[in-house]
Amino acid sequence: MAITLGTNISSLKITNGINNITTALADSMERLSSGLKINSAKDDAAGLVISENMQARIQSSEQAMQNIQTSEAFLTVAEDGMVSITDHLQRINDLLTNMANDTNDIDSRTASANEIVERLEEIDRLASSTNFNGMKMLDGSTDSIIVQLGPDSTEDSILEIAGALSNCYTTAQGLNIILPDELNPNAFDNAGQTVYLQDDGTYVDNTGATVTIGDPSTLTPKFDPTNANCREYMAEIQEAIGRLTTQRGLLGAYGNRLESSYDSLSIRVESLKEGQSVYTDTDVAKESTNYVRQQILEQLNVSLLTQSNSTQQLALSLLGG
Predict the structure, then answer these.
(1) Which of 81, 82, 126, 276 has the most crowded Cβ, counting Cβ within 10 A?
(2) CA angle at residue 303 from 297 to 304, to 5 degrees?
(3) Across 133-231, where does the E strand assignment appear?
(4) Which among 64, 259, 57 has a CA at the least distance from the CA of 149?
(5) How far is Cα 157 from Cα 153, in angstroms, rounded to an integer?
(6) What average pLDDT score do residues 109-129 get?
(7) Residue 53 CB coordination number (10 Å)
(8) pLDDT tens-digit profile of 277-293?
């Protein structure tokens, strides 16, 4: 190779090599510091597209899992309300069983009937007040509750759970347990019209309208807690308990479906994250080895560059000779 004072070709080649090695070192340091193999689109354009699509599925699936947990809490609140109502129905059934026993006098039967009235009012209060985030659950007003339990917009990713709810008012068709007049100690005959004594001492008709009454002592009680009347109402209460228990069973079935969907999503997210890792996560062992290799090459090229630059000093030696 000729000794010249012009362009130092070997020095230029080594300089380019150092620049490439420096860039590779910077890339290795970025991958090692971030833990990611893809830090920008230029690192792996195709891999970036695949990993971002996976990330969208992962995040959507994780949100769906949160939806399921919220929905399970929704069903739990609904069932808690139904459990409380069922407890009241069971107590009413016990009281009726006691009232149907002819060895009980009218006073004890009246006391039992008064408790039944209070418990029926509490059932209506629970039907009205049981809610989740302001959404009524036991008054028959909620027609549709759709749970988004999947990461896409297909029909397979939704579940309608409103069918597990129930109208639990005492006057509702599905739970017709309003106390009959013959077992209501607050029901009176007012010249052929049935009126009901309220807690505030006023009287109302069966529509709830206030009725003015001149002399309450002229009212005839409709209360007639005979064995037959009590037994007839017992049968109705027991049917109501059966219907409500069936609804609770449906709540459990929906809860099981939600739990199964959650488990399935959990496995899917795990698999997606594992697949995404192939594209995005840095192989630390491999990248560390590559980093050390680039460091050694950098040091070697710097040494070679020094040697290449010193070669031109030979020209001065020749001139001095």
Answers:
(1) 82
(2) 85
(3) 135-136, 146-148, 158-160, 187-190, 193-197, 203-204, 210-211, 220-221
(4) 64
(5) 7
(6) 94
(7) 12
(8) 787 777 667 777 777 77
Strand 210-211 relative to strand 187-190, pairing:
unpaired
Q: What is the pTM of this model?
A: 0.74
Nearest to 186 by CA among 118, 100, 126: 118
Q: What are phi and psi of 204, to 5 degrees?
A: -130, 160
Which one is predicted more confidently, 288 or 218? Answer: 218
CA torsion sign, 240 to 242 to 247 to 252?
positive
Residue 194's pLDDT is 95
DSSP code at position 160 = E
**Cβ neighbours around 313 below 10 Å, total:** 9
- Helix, strand, coil percentages (3-state) for the chain, rounded to 5, are 65, 10, 25
Would you say residue 313 has pLDDT above 90? Answer: no
pLDDT at 186: 94
Q: Are strands 187-190 and 158-160 parallel, antiparallel or unpaired?
A: unpaired
Per CATH, domain 48-180+226-279 is 1.20.1330.10: yes
The percent of residues above 70 in pLDDT, for the chain, comes to: 82
